[in-house]
Specification:
Helix content: 25-40%
Radius of gyration: 21 Å
Strand content: 15-25%
Largest sheet: 8 strands, parallel, barrel
Shape: elongated
Number of helices: 12
Structural class: alpha/beta
Bound molecules: phosphoenolpyruvate, manganese (II) ion
Oligomer: single chain
Length: 360
C-alpha cells in the first residue's frame, strides 16, 4: 500500500499519516519526490484497510501496490534517486557518471596508493578495493581485513576518493560501515537476508551486486530488503551472470540496465571486470554500459596485474584505464551524461609507487 500525499501537503500532515500507519502496527516510509511525498507501508501481511488513511488531511490517494517490491519501485518515486556524499561533489544516479575503480583486493599500502593515485588522476571519484574477500577456495588470499580498511581511509584523505568496499558478514559490516563511504554486498551474498537487513540499518549507502543466477526481480527484492529497514540509499550493480558461454567468466547482461530503470528509481552501475573476467573485454563493455545508460562503472585496475593476489587477469593496467576514461568521456554526452572534470587538486604525478613510499 502506498499513500500519495498532495503536492502542497505540509510536514505536519505527512507526519500525521506516518504516525497513523505506525499506530496500526505497520512501518511508514516517507519518500520525498520532486512533486510530492509518497509514504510506503510495509510490515503488513495482508491488505491494509485504506479507508482511514484516505480521509486524512493532505492525502491525495491510497494506492495498492501489486508488485512484490514496493520501496524500490517507480510507483513510490517517479524521479531517479541521486546518492550524495558529504564533503564531496560525487553523486550516483544524477547526470554525472559515477566511476569506481581500484584493485580487486587491497594487498598492501604501496599497491593501494599506487593504483589510487592513477585512477584519481584519470577521473574516478570512487576507489574500490576488497578488505574482506569472498573466495571460492579457503586457501586463497582472504583480504587484509581492518588493515585494508585503514589503508582505504587514508586513500580517501589523500586523494579525496570515496571508498567502496565489501562486507561479507555482519561482523565485517560493522567495520566497513565505520571506514567506508559505500557498503558493497557481493554477488554471493545477494540473498543473505540477514546481511541485507543489517545493511538496511547502516548509515552509509549500500551497493547490492546481482547474484550469479539472480533474476531482475530477485535483485530488486534484495534492494527491497535494505530499504525496508530504512536505508533508502541503495545502488544496484550488474556484474554478469552464469550462462553456458565459456569465452567469458560471466555473461554481462546489459539489458538489465534499461529494465531496472523502467521499474525502479534506484541507480544501477555496471561492473565489466567480473562481468567478463578478461582484461581485453573490459573497455569495450564499459563503452557499451555507458551507451546503454548505466549510472556508473566499477572497474578493476592494478599496476602489476601479473602479481595481483586476486583477479589479475581481468584487471586493467592504469594506462588502459586512462584510455577507457578517454573513450567513455566521448560516449557519455551522446546519452546525456557527463564525467566530472578531472580533479586538479592531486598535484604533480609521482613516479609509480613513490607517493606511497613518501607517505608511509
Ligand atoms: C568484487 O567486486 O570484488 C567481487 C567479489 O565481486 P562479485 O561479488 O560481483 O563477485
Ligand atoms: Mn575481483
Amino acid at each position: 500500500m502506498l499513500v500519495v500525499m498532495q503536492a502542497h501537503a505540509s510536514e505536519d500532515q505527512i507526519r500525521g499519516v506516518c504516525q497513523k500507519i505506525e499506530s496500526l502496527g505497520y512501518r511508514a516510509h516517507p519518500i520525498p519526490g520532486a512533486e510530492r511525498t509518497a509514504i510506503g507501508i510495509t510490515g503488513n501481511q495482508g491488505e491494509v484497510e485504506p479507508g482511514t488513511l484516505e480521509e486524512m488531511p493532505g492525502v491525495q490517494e491510497v494506492i495498492r501496490v501489486t508488485k512484490p517490491y514496493k520501496l524500490v519501485s517507480r510507483d513510490i518515486k517517479v524521479d531517479n534517486t541521486v546518492i550524495r556524499f558529504p564533503g564531496s561533489t560525487a553523486t550516483i544516479g544524477g547526470t554525472a557518471l559515477a566511476i569506481m575503480a581500484g584493485p580487486c583486493a587491497i594487498e598492501n599500502r604501496e599497491q593501494a596508493f599506487t593504483v589510487a593515485e592513477r585512477v584519481a588522476r584519470a577521473g574516478a571519484q570512487f576507489f574500490r578495493g576488497g578488505a574482506y574477500k569472498p573466495r571460492t577456495s579457503p586457501y586463497s588470499f582472504q583480504g587484509l581485513g581492518e588493515e585494508g580498511l585503514r589503508i582505504m581511509a587514508q586513500i580517501r584523505d589523500q586523494f579525496g576518493l570515496r571508498i567502496v568496499t565489501e562486507a561479507i558478514d555482519n561482523e565485517s559490516l560493522e567495520l566497513v560501515e565505520e571506514y567506508a563511504d559505500i557498503i558493497q554486498i557481493g554477488a554471493r551474498n545477494m540473498q543473505n537476508f540477514s546481511l541485507l537487513r543489517r545493511a538496511g540499518r547502516a548509515r552509509k549507502p549500500v551497493m547490492v551486486k546481482r547474484g550469479m543466477s539472480a533474476t531482475l526481480e530477485e535483485l530488486l527484492m534484495a534492494a527491497e530488503y535494505v530499504m525496508s529497514e530504512g536505508n533508502y540509499n541503495v545502488i544496484l550493480c550488474e556484474r554478469g551472470v552464469r550462462t553456458f558461454a565459456d569465452h567469458t567468466r560471466n555473461t554481462l547482461d546489459l539489458s538489465i540496465v534499461p529494465a531496472v530503470q523502467r521499474l525502479s528509481h534506484l541507480p544501477i552501475v555496471v561492473d565489466p571486470s567480473h562481468g567478463t573476467g578478461k582484461r581485453n573485454k573490459v573497455t569495450p563493455l564499459s563503452r557499451a554500459a555507458v551507451a546503454v545508460g548505466a549510472d556508473g562503472l566499477m572497474v578493476e585496475v592494478h599496476h602489476e596485474p601479473d602479481k595481483a593476489l586476486s583477479d589479475g587477469v581481468q584487471s586493467l593496467y592504469p594506462e588502459q584505464f586512462e584510455e577507457l576514461m578517454a573513450q567513455v568521456r566521448q560516449i557519455a554526452p551522446v546519452v546525456g551524461r557527463a564525467i566530472p572534470r578531472l580533479d586538479q587538486a592531486i598535484g604533480p604525478l609521482s613516479k609509480a609507487g613513490t607517493s606511497a613510499r613518501s607517505l608511509s
